[in-house]
Write a structure and sequence with these properties.
Helices cover 41% and strands 19% of the residues.
Length: 118
C-alpha cells in the first residue's frame, strides 16, 4: 500500500504563493487540510494569485478536485487566479474528463505557471 501521509508546503512570495503537495496519492485528511490552507491564504493572508503544485501526484481523488474547484471559485470572485502544475498524465486526465482543464490553467512546470501570473 502506498504511503498517503502528505505534507503541504507553502512558499509565500510578494505577489503570489506556491502551495505544494508532496507524495503520489492524496489522502482525505490532506484534502481537508488543503481546503483550510487555501481558505486561510485567500481570506486571511490576502493571496489572490496561487500556484498549486501537484507535480508529484500520480493519482487524484474527487475530494481534492472539489477543494481545487472551491478555491478557484473563491479566487474568481475577487479577481484572483489559480494555476496548477500537473505532470502525471493520469492526474491531467481527471481534469480533462470533468472538463476542468478548460476552466483551470494547468501547466507542466513551475516556470510556465509563474509566467502566466504576470
Amino acid at each position: 500500500m502506498k504511503n498517503t501521509i502528505n505534507t503541504i508546503s507553502i512558499t509565500k512570495l510578494e505577489r503570489y504563493c506556491i502551495v505544494k503537495i508532496d507524495g503520489e496519492i492524496v489522502s482525505l485528511s490532506t484534502s481537508i487540510k488543503l481546503k483550510e490552507t487555501l481558505n486561510e491564504l485567500i481570506e486571511k493572508d490576502k493571496y489572490y494569485q496561487i500556484i498549486l503544485d501537484l507535480s508529484e501526484l500520480k493519482f487524484i481523488e474527487s475530494s481534492l478536485i472539489g477543494v481545487i474547484v472551491d478555491a478557484y471559485k473563491l479566487l474568481i470572485m475577487i479577481n484572483g487566479r489559480m494555476n496548477l502544475i500537473v505532470k502525471a498524465k493520469s492526474v491531467y486526465e481527471r481534469f480533462e474528463v470533468s472538463q476542468l482543464d478548460k476552466l483551470l490553467r494547468i501547466y507542466d512546470n513551475l516556470e510556465d505557471a509563474k509566467k502566466s501570473l504576470n
